[in-house]
Amino acid sequence: MPAITTPNTQIELFYEDHGDPAHPPILLVMGLGAQLTLWPDEFVEALVQRGFRVIRFDNRDIGLSQKMAGERPPKVVWQVLWTKLGFPPRVPYTLTDMADDAAGLLDALAIDHAHVVGASMGGMIAQLMAVHHPERLLSLTSIFSTTGNPKLPQAEKHAMEALTAPLKSLEEEAVVAHGMRVQRAIGSPAYRPSDEKLRERVLKTVRRSVYPDGLPRQLAAIIEDGDRRGRLGAVTAPTLVLHGEDDPLVKVEAGEDTAMAIPGARLVTIPGWGHDLPLELTDRLAQEIAAHAKAA
């Protein structure tokens, strides 16, 4: 599939388009530092088989989409400190910019309305699409995401450290080992793939693209966006919140808080599920999303 330039933000996004173009579209929005390939092929196919056109894409600054090279984010410690003091520092781009990218992708593909499904940071982007582009959403699904409420339980230390640890080398074996450590740290305790299967998945992603410079800029955008609860009260899209009860990175309380903040939202939690999309849950998650979209 080609890259396409969004008419509103003028960002080049790489995307994949699956299924019958005449079927209702689902737009999948991925999370922090994650390529579109983290939406498993099996998950995409499960949605296609349920009667949807499925579009997944690389956010700006990751994968095969446009990189914001040369833009330096503030250091996390200073950004958090200045934000708490009421003086948020300038960031290279915001989550709202990324939500505008996603809406622009729909424009570029001549799609007026779509079901929008976002995971983790992608859930935040999807939430902001529902806030700033409400007329574009047929429904919203927020997966293991959060409102930005600062009073929520924080990530487990080992999970956050693994996710934000710097790469010590860009050699393939070092990057694969790093990716496997991250997946082991944040993944589902009840659905752990074998080392062989995990390595195969990570290697495929690494050979597609390696771009660690984008992660701190995306993280800066998350911090800059702050608490979304006040904005989420205006969301009118029918909303489903999916969250793992054993997520070490974005605790299940964040999913509960998201469902409370969005009027009429329905919350589904799953025991043993962490901060990944295990193949064992493919049918369950696809069915929840498909049923929600069709009801909407």
From TrEMBL:
Keywords: Hydrolase. SUPFAM superfamilies: alpha/beta-Hydrolases. It comes from the Bacteria. GO terms for biological process: glycerolipid catabolic process. Residues 24-279 form the AB hydrolase-1 domain. One of its GO terms (molecular function) is triacylglycerol lipase activity. It holds the Pfam family Abhydrolase_1. Gene3D superfamilies: alpha/beta hydrolase. This is Alpha/beta hydrolase. The lineage of its organism: Bacteria, Pseudomonadati, Pseudomonadota, Alphaproteobacteria, Sphingomonadales.
